[in-house]
Amino acid sequence: MTHDSSINTDGELNNSSNESEQNWRRYFSFSTDHKVIGVQYMAMTFMFFLIGGLLAMIIRAELLTPEANVVDRPLYNGLFTMHGTIMIFLWIIPFNAGLANYLVPLMIGARDMAFPLLNAIAFWILPPAGLLLLSSFLLPNGTAQSGWWSYPPISLQVPPGYINGEFIWIVSLILIGISSIMGAINFLTTIFWMRAPGMTFFRMPVFVWSVMSAQLLQLINLPALTGALILLLFDLSLGTQFFKPLENGDPVIYQHLFWFYSHPAVYIMALPAFGIFAEVLPAFARNPLFGYRSVALATLGIALVSIFVWVHHMFTSATPNWMRMTFMVTSMLVAVPTGVKAFAWTATIWRSKLHLETPMLFAMGGATMFIFGGITGVMLAATPFDIHVNNTYFVVGHFHYVVFNTITMAIFAAIYFWFPKITGRMYSEGWGKLHFWLTFIPANITFFSMHPLGLQGMLRRISSYDPQYQGWNIIASLGAFLLGASTLPFIANIVGSWLYGPRAVNNPWHATGLEWITSSPPPRDNFEEIPIVKRPPYDYGDPKYSVLENSNNRD
Amino acid sequence: MFTFLEYILIAFYVAGLLIVSRWIGQQAFSWMPVQATAEAQRVDDLFSFLVSIGAFILLGLVGVIVYAIIFHRARQKDYSEGHSVRGDARIELLWTAVPTLLVLWIAFKGFSIYQQLNILGLQQIVHLHTPVESPAYATVANKPQPATETIDVFVKQWEWSFRYPNNLTSKELHLPVNRSTRLNLHAQDVIHGFYVSAFRLKQDIIPNRNIDIVLTPIRSGKYRLKDSQFSGTYFALMEADVYVEPLDTYNQWLTQTTANEPTQTKDWVVAESIQAHKTFFNSGWQTFIPASPAIAKERKVSNDT
């Protein structure tokens, strides 16, 4: 990818004009700059990640022993409910929104998002919604305690009074959903209408494709969840009977509406992670992304197929045979486009010139673990097997391989990869590598252990268990505590480097992509002049990317 | 693309992968609980097959990645291109078509095993208020298997109970071995799940719906029935003993047992309320206690601490 002006490779770039803008105060202001909003999203969601992780630590401490002896049962139920809710709705989904906010306009050569004000509003809905959710810990009878699915009728069993944890949970989730729909409209409009001259669809980076596909899913499927939650709120607070089986309501309808969004939600989370792999792997392999066009189309393919697989979460929910069989086949078909991606990543690494810096380690680790998570996913799609392991730790292990070992690893890869662009400074490579190994090994220890537990029949969401399960649980818990500790070098590295790190050049990775041709950090309007795109993406054969930069921040 | 020697090496690699993944697939049987029904054997066969295929793909790709990490490292400061191949229509077509055929094969295998489960009696009949015609393309029979014995299963917060043909009600589930038994599942308050891991059988029980399952245990022994769908505060304690025994023993048990008195307060709930003080951290959150023994329409709240 190139444009008319030459690339600025001056390592001692004068950032003093940006320095005044770099004032930290703007991150606490109602800014409409997509870059500020992106950082706001990412910083805020990371706080929630730490809170969600802390809850996981308590859960794993409880599961060290077969008896319930760390927290009482209502609190345990509140803990796993809030852990799931926070990690999905206040960490991964909004973090991806923040990253996409920062990158999409830069990658397509736009000055900002299509609707900057809507963008800011969408973000500023989140902090109150998140704090509202957390505030339910302070209620006399605690948080919602029916899992992040919040299936009725169990979710409707609450102590008397209007304000209870479940009520707060529903209101908070509806708010977060509204924010996501606003974001989806904004992203799709931006990608469709704000591309630079020459930036055709098949010149867009795969990350932009993945954001487009994920946001399409938000737009199509999220209203189903919002509708379901509103009906649930009516049942809870206004005495209606939509989902109350004892009053001729139908709780299974809720499950359909819920999974009609919440299965695609997995892809809303995963597709941007795949997009990150597609950006990071070629840059450090020095090869073009193998089969770019098919990878881009596979992204859209995953999104389309994922709309039609939601019943695989309900194979044991009094689901008729024809539905079990139909959704078994559709669920397995998701493996085809995801397989195309995994093979393309592998082919990109093949016969390459690998540079194993921290972003590459995280991207390769995440891609490898995704293969494992995908394989157990295909197993779970097979109805006869799913009937055995449904709602067991096998499922918990499988989706943590996807949401943590794949998506969160991809998020770390993205943070390290675009850190110089966002902050104008370099992170410490040594600390980054330490963070990788402290994450990669314990993550596998923790989440692999859950598979044998599930096969042996240990159910999820139990606070006490049969003694036969203790061995693997201890291993999983110890891995989890290490995983908790792994965030410390990361935080130290990011905070320290942001404040005192060496100055970064415009393109420290010699990567293609429009975001690397502008300064680090980019100016308010992103580009001195809007670039004109004349070449395909991932153009690593172009000699200009092989030019050595005279920079002092790479060893 | 490749030299002749490389083709030989690739062939050896694939052959080695096949042997190793087949072996891992064989190991998969030992990762499962005992097989107490014929269905369990079928499910384990399917799982072993899935593990073999999965191991082949995982090891194959990881092997390539590890090989690249070892042999395809860049020299310091070398930012030139590794290769200039942007794609290859044949390879891309191959790795789209092969997985498609593979998942269709897996789906076919899953379907045929599912049908066998039906032949063996893993069958559920859902009675809706408005009977829904099953579509014409539903090839799986919706006819229940004839069962020799019918047992009513009642589940509520916080106990399982079982009513036998002679009207005996018990907190234990007894099943005759090698005979098909139909279980009529009834939930009183929230959604519960019937799950015995050794049977590889799981079925949600939805209040106000009659759901029947038929099962045929083939191995005598004691098993644990667990609640597989989250059902509230004491969800982890929703267990019952399952005894699979020869017909004589089963009949003997039926005739010699007097009905358990329905207890008003469950022993373990009392134990739990004492236990609650023993947890390291005590939230003091009140929990929902269902009205007993009738269906919980009114809500009582007791402080569980």
From TrEMBL, chain A:
PROSITE patterns: COX1 (PS50855), COX1_CUB (PS00077). Keywords: Electron transport, Heme, Iron, Membrane, Metal-binding, Respiratory chain, Transmembrane, Transmembrane helix, Transport. Gene3D superfamilies: Cytochrome c oxidase-like, subunit I domain. It is a multi-pass membrane protein. It is found in: Membrane. PANTHER family: CYTOCHROME C OXIDASE SUBUNIT 1. Cytochrome c oxidase is the component of the respiratory chain that catalyzes the reduction of oxygen to water. Subunits 1-3 form the functional core of the enzyme complex. CO I is the catalytic subunit of the enzyme. Electrons originating in cytochrome c are transferred via the copper A center of subunit 2 and heme A of subunit 1 to the bimetallic center formed by heme A3 and copper B. This is Cbb3-type cytochrome c oxidase subunit I. It comes from Halotia branconii CENA392.
UniProtKB/TrEMBL annotation, chain B:
The keyword Transmembrane applies. Binds a copper A center. The chain crosses the membrane at residues 7-26, 46-70, 91-108. It is found in: Cell membrane; Membrane. It catalyses: 4 Fe(II)-[cytochrome c] + O2 + 8 H(+)(in) = 4 Fe(III)-[cytochrome c] + 2 H2O + 4 H(+)(out). Residues 146-256 form the Cytochrome oxidase subunit II copper A binding domain. Residues 23-121 form the Cytochrome oxidase subunit II transmembrane region profile domain. Its main location: membrane. Its cofactor is Cu cation. Keywords: Copper, Electron transport, Membrane, Metal-binding, Respiratory chain, Translocase, Transmembrane, Transmembrane helix, Transport. One of its GO terms (cellular component) is plasma membrane. GO terms for molecular function: copper ion binding; cytochrome-c oxidase activity. It is a multi-pass membrane protein. One of its GO terms (biological process) is ATP synthesis coupled electron transport. It comes from the Bacteria. Subunits I and II form the functional core of the enzyme complex. Electrons originating in cytochrome c are transferred via heme a and Cu(A) to the binuclear center formed by heme a3 and Cu(B). Belongs to the cytochrome c oxidase subunit 2 family. This is Cytochrome c oxidase subunit 2.
